[in-house]
Design a protein that fits this description.
heterodimer, A: mainly alpha, MetI-like fold, 13 helices, about 80% helix, globular, B: alpha/beta, 5-stranded mixed sheet, 4-stranded antiparallel sheet, 11 strands, about 20% strand
Chain lengths: ~280, ~325
């Protein structure tokens, strides 16, 4: 959580850079960075004090050194046949594949539902129904239908990511200022022109925001997806270590998951800024 | 702030202690029982625990396997539980606040490795390149790795998946896995659907790798209500005696508890070894408080194996495993 605080201010400072005040950027970042570091440092200090004083059972809250040692060991020697990077790779492959699929399906679907009221009426019940379903409940059915392999895991992650994209794309498309549309039409724009030169650029920023939320949702379902019959992945590693009460590995895995999540989110923002410099993400 | 917190803690601890002394009777007892075939089902079915503990609210919680039971214990969700020797070794090494008090059952062919008949698997070596499932952290996962090691088969040459017993049965029916080492009542579903038994846990016992389940009690409960630990043991012993004396009726009870046809229940029953409580204090099993039995050796060799598998950080000295086994309660029940 605390780590996430620092990038929050980044977009604002980028705006400033564009307005030609690059010098302002540095102090701005370091101030928020300092404050964020303070939170992290305080948390670490509290953790150290609690464990060093023996206030916490080491079985449940191991010392920071132990977690660091688990990290080093998993990086170099691995955990149950795969190194940390391999576990991370397996998880990222699942997340990114499922997320890409969710975008490929969700964005066109959202545009369609945003432009056409009929399509929205037809498809809304489906999306609204399964969106609030808890992922584990859904997962038991997916495993029965699709088996214990990759396909059920990817489907679960895909289904977790899809509604966020669809709903925000619908919102994005419906909130496009009609003046833009009429202006383009009066200049003789075809439907195709309207889609690619009016709707998508105008709706783009909101769609991207939806993609970020959806990536977050996909991420939160990861451990659930890797509980059944996985043999690699960060989520699986956490689950497996819990069975053997290796809480140092569990906590290390959670920290890695958290940090990776932040990096993924930052990457999404970077891409957004690159693709749509007109948007304030 | 800190002072007030400590004061509150102290006061509430005294209040709790006073309440315990005044009543000396738990309001509720939660028994976590493993989903397998043993006399705990008889005890539960006949309500023997309720007869021993009148006025106590007794709650039974079914737990899928050892890994889940460890989590339930670590989360303080049960008062009594049952664990196979690998999870017991894990719990003892990680200093979970539990003690082993009773032999629940020995594992014979109630646990076995089933292989798909059409895959031509006649030995463990044929498992290379196949998909094999076992509930990780359980007795069968331990035996699978142990058996592979004995035959010189590299576990990395196959895909070993972690699945709960019920998930194994489902995955088997779908054709997702080629072999699995797990236990009844789910094992039978695989055998009946194109499977045959390759090796049983009983055969592994003969090879020097015995597996069993042991009854455990939470330390806090045992300290507060020692007499209720004895009551628990007494009820379970009655269940074991009933099992040994009335096999037909026991099979009926198991058939009903697990919704199975009677012949299946009878066969599964025979695949489970029951040790009468009077014999549990011998050298072969728990031993006595003065001289602990062979279960200590099994725990040590299991823990040693898990350390080599990097599932446990270090092997504890023998004294720690001896301290884990507490035949004292059973000794009182038997009257020694």
């Amino acid at each position: 959580m605390s780590v996430e605080a620092s990038p929050m201010d980044v977009p604002i400072s980028t705006d400033r850079t564009r307005r030609g005040q690059p010098k302002l950027r540095l102090p701005k970042i370091s101030r928020s960075f300092l404050l964020s570091s303070l939170t992290v440092a305080l948390l670490l200090a509290a953790w150290t004090v609690v464990t060093e004083m023996g206030w916490a059972n080491e079985l449940f809250l191991p010392k920071p050194q132990a977690v660091w040692a688990a990290f080093v060991k998993t990086m170099t020697k691995g955990y149950q046949g795969a190194t940390l990077l391999q576990h991370l790779g397996a998880s990222l492959y699942r997340i990114l594949t499922a997320f890409a699929l969710a975008c490929l399906v969700g964005i066109p679907l959202g545009v369609l539902m945003g432009v056409s009221g009929n399509a929205r009426a037809l498809l809304n019940p489906l999306i609204e129904f399964y969106r609030p379903l808890p992922p584990l409940g859904l997962y038991t059915l997916l495993v029965m239908w699709l088996g214990i392999g990759e396909s059920s895991k990817l489907s679960l992650l895909f289904l977790a990511g899809l509604p966020g994209i669809v709903i925000s794309t619908i919102q994005a498309v419906t909130s496009v200022d009609p003046v833009y549309v009429r202006a383009a039409q009066s200049l003789g724009a075809t439907r195709r022109h309207l889609l690619f030169h009016v709707y998508l650029p105008a709706a783009g920023p909101l769609i991207l925001a939806g993609m970020r939320i959806s990536l977050g949702f996909t991420y939160t379902v990861l451990v659930a997806a890797e509980i059944v019959a996985a043999s690699a992945g960060i989520g699986w590693m956490i689950w497996d270590a819990a069975k053997f009460l290796l809480s140092d590995v569990v906590i290390m895995g959670l920290i890695v998951l958290g940090l990776t999540g932040v990096v993924l989110d930052l990457t999404m923002r970077g891409i957004a800024r690159l693709l749509m410099p007109w948007a304030r993400t | 702030m800190m002072n007030r917190l400590i004061a509150t803690l102290v006061v509430s601890t005294f209040a709790l202690a006073a309440a315990a002394r005044a009543e000396d009777k738990p309001a509720k007892v939660t028994v976590g029982y493993l989903n397998l075939v043993n006399a705990q089902l008889v005890t539960k079915h006949l309500g023997l625990l309720g007869k021993e503990m009148p006025g106590v609210d007794i709650k039974y919680v079914k737990v899928g396997g050892g890994g889940d039971m460890l989590r339930a214990i670590a989360g303080n969700d049960v008062d009594f539980g049952g664990l196979g020797n690998p999870p017991t070794a894990i719990g003892a090494t990680r200093a979970l606040p539990i003690k082993g008090i009773l032999v629940i059952n020995l594992l014979d062919y109630v646990e076995a490795m089933v292989v798909r008949t059409d895959k031509n698997i006649t030995s463990l070596k044929d498992l290379k390149g196949k998909t094999v499932a076992a509930p990780f952290g359980s007795t069968t996962h331990y035996l699978l790795l142990q058996a592979l090691k004995d035959e010189g088969v590299d576990p990395a040459s196959m895909k070993i998946l972690d699945l709960a017993p019920s998930d194994i049965a489902a995955a088997w029916l779908r054709g997702d896995i080629d072999a699995a080492w797990f236990w009844e009542p789910n094992l039978d579903k695989a055998v009946k659907n194109g499977g045959k038994i390759l090796i049983t846990s009983g055969e592994m016992t003969k090879r020097g790798y015995p597996t069993w389940d042991i009854g455990v009690v939470m330390n806090a409960f045992a300290e507060k209500y020692p007499s209720y630990v004895e009551k628990f043991i007494k009820a379970e012993c009655e269940g074991i005696d009933f099992w040994l004396k009335n096999p037909e009726k026991t099979a009926e009870i198991i058939a009903e508890e697990l919704s199975l046809p009677l012949p299946d229940a009878t066969r599964m029953m025979k695949g489970t070894g029951m040790v009468p409580c009077s014999k549990q204090l011998t050298e072969e099993y728990l031993g006595t408080s003065a001289k602990k039995g062979k279960f200590v050796d099994t725990l040590i060799s299991t823990a040693d194996f898990l350390v080599k598998q990097e599932r446990l950080p270090k092997l504890l000295p023998r004294a720690d495993f001896e301290a884990f086994l507490q035949p004292a309660y059973l000794e009182k029940v038997i009257g020694r």
